[in-house]
Amino acid sequence: MRWSQITECGPVRRRNEDWLCVCPDLGLFAVADGMGGHLAGDVASRLALGVLEDYLRDHRHDNAPYPDKLATGIQKANEVVYLAASKDVQRRGMGTTITACLVQGYHATVANVGDSRALLLREGNINKLTVDHSLVQELIDGGGISEKEALQHPRRNVLTRALGVGPRVNVDIYEYSLARGDRILICTDGLTGFVPEQRIGDLLLVSPDPQEALHLLLKEAIAAGSNDNITIILLAVD
Questions:
Q1: pTM exceeds 0.70
Q2: What is the pLDDT of residue 39?
């Protein structure tokens, strides 16, 4: 498996509140997007991914199923971010999204909280591996707006679930079989909030090199008017 990653502040923001985690020895690849408009969003995203990595490293030889390990690690991250926010008035209200992929051979366990996404490109078709926890996703599910309209919705940044804002959080867990030639994209909404999924899939098909493909996606997001931090991990299954 090959991979590449990038995290950029973007052309508008002065601070990068995104963070990423790439640990090939654990099979762990994850992104987090600190909650904008709150104090210390960058602290929340880095803290959450650090706790998740430490937990999985400490329990790498346990016999617990991978979905249980990933869910428990994210719950631990939630607890630590929540307590850090509770104890420091300067950090009160901070939180983060998190989307993590644990790859073992040709099997992927994917977890998410919030609106950072995992996508799968297979045989030219791109599909979501996660479901956003956001207001616009609820509107899409209810038939109120389309995916295209969601990209322009004035409340597209409103989350319905985030890590660190309460003592417990519900974590969505998915399991997928992988195949040679698959591409897994894990990213924050600085990309998917501005570039339609089909266009993302088209650009991934342009270059087989993960690093080159990431730069194409970054350039496309900025050209599309992204005013957010942009963080992307691309996995190529060989």
A1: yes
A2: 65
The count of other CB atoms within 10 Å of the CB of residue 215 is: 16
Contact in structure between 161 and 182 (CB atoms under 8 Å) = no
Over residues 56-73, the pLDDT tens digits come to 999 999 999 999 999 999
Distances (CA, A) of 116 to 106, 192, 230: 23, 8, 11
What would the two tokens of residue 72 be? 């428990």
Burial class (CB in 10 A: 0-12, 13-18, 19+), 65: exposed
The C-alpha angle 67, 69, 74, rounded to 5 degrees, equals 95
Angle, nearest 10°, between helix axes 66-87 and 41-58? Answer: 140
Contact yes or no for 222/10 (Cβ under 8 A): yes
More confident residue, 39 or 34: 34
pLDDT tens for 170-195 read: 999 999 999 999 999 999 999 999 99
Per-residue confidence at 93, pLDDT binned at 50, 70, 90?
Answer: confident
List, in order of start, the domains of the chain with CATH numbers: 2-237 (3.60.40.10)
